[in-house]
């Protein structure tokens, strides 16, 4: 697999990189391991100070980092700016709260003194995706480094310049070179890194298939793993919802990052009493979206990240249409340069079609009509995935029912699913396991050690 920057707006190959050799990987592993022996003894204050400097570097040069994301994977520039600022936020959050999250916890027992202490594990490998090329990395790195671990990043092969830039940012903030390193390696080289004794744990954000492979290898060598995989998030609209607000947020929830988000709203499940009106509103708002150059300020939707992603999405859409779905709008790739796919709405979704069973990674909304809340919940749960969900209603009984019965790692009421540094983030079922962010995130890669002193 080529490690290259290929502009998804033009298709032009801008820069290529050679994958690290086995010798070069060995050098980086050795540097990480030796660096950890000193870094684990550093104070929380020292780590926090450097994380705050990382945040400042991100904010001061936000346009530079944002432009790099847009160049490599097509994210609209304004969205990329917001992503950089969110990365700074997560660094500040753990700099301010990390020490408190990991302070010793005294427990009264029969011992003279007993407590729980949280100690770093060592070298942690992160296998990260292209769709949020800065955020996914920083939401892993900030808590990991604050806990006293060191990090190795295997980033997606289509965002190598982002990977190298992130390593430069950590070095510029004063972290020793071995604390955070980017490995420009191919997917076939990941297994050897996971198996290396110096690597103590691994986290992956990506596809189900990638998660299965990483978890299998980590399981063989009995190493901790955290997985955040796909999502087919339901967006449930009940009869008493504010339809104008719900439709407005539906567009944002589906189209963020050009539709390429695990927690994007993908299945719009609407009760039949208000379905025609909601479809009309959604169509009007989709038609108002502007597709074009992601660097332009007024662009709503840029290109998909790669030709392969475009081809896969189009295959799913065409197969669903062939099986009987109705096209409300869109449904075919745009002609010309770049990986552009138009905003698309499909309804009358047939059973066993891709739209019923697969995640659609792009600007395609799947619209379902159901009779009532009971059927809405049943359809929402009729998926192997369980990342996020949202429901639009003012009815407290229905809210309580959805909280109790919807199978997902998070449920948002009258808002779209999003990640917040203060709240744990992750999924259930085939959407993965483990949590990122909040106090739960920083405790994923530590030794929770019991101390009993008599």
TrEMBL record:
SUPFAM superfamilies cross-referenced by the UniProt entry: ALDH-like
Cross-referenced InterPro entries? Ald_DH/histidinol_DH, Ald_DH_C, Ald_DH_N, Aldehyde_DH_dom, ALDH_GabD1-like, GABD/Sad-like
Tell me which Pfam families the record gives: Aldedh
Query: In its keyword annotation, does this UniProt entry include Ribosomal protein?
Result: no
Keyword NADP present in the record's keywords: the answer is: yes
Give the UniProt keywords, A-Z.
NADP, Oxidoreductase
Q: Which residues form the Aldehyde dehydrogenase domain?
A: 3-451
Q: Which family does it belong to?
A: Belongs to the aldehyde dehydrogenase family.
Name of the protein in question? NAD-dependent succinate-semialdehyde dehydrogenase
Instruction: Cite the source lineage.
Output: Bacteria, Bacillati, Cyanobacteriota, Cyanophyceae, Oscillatoriophycideae
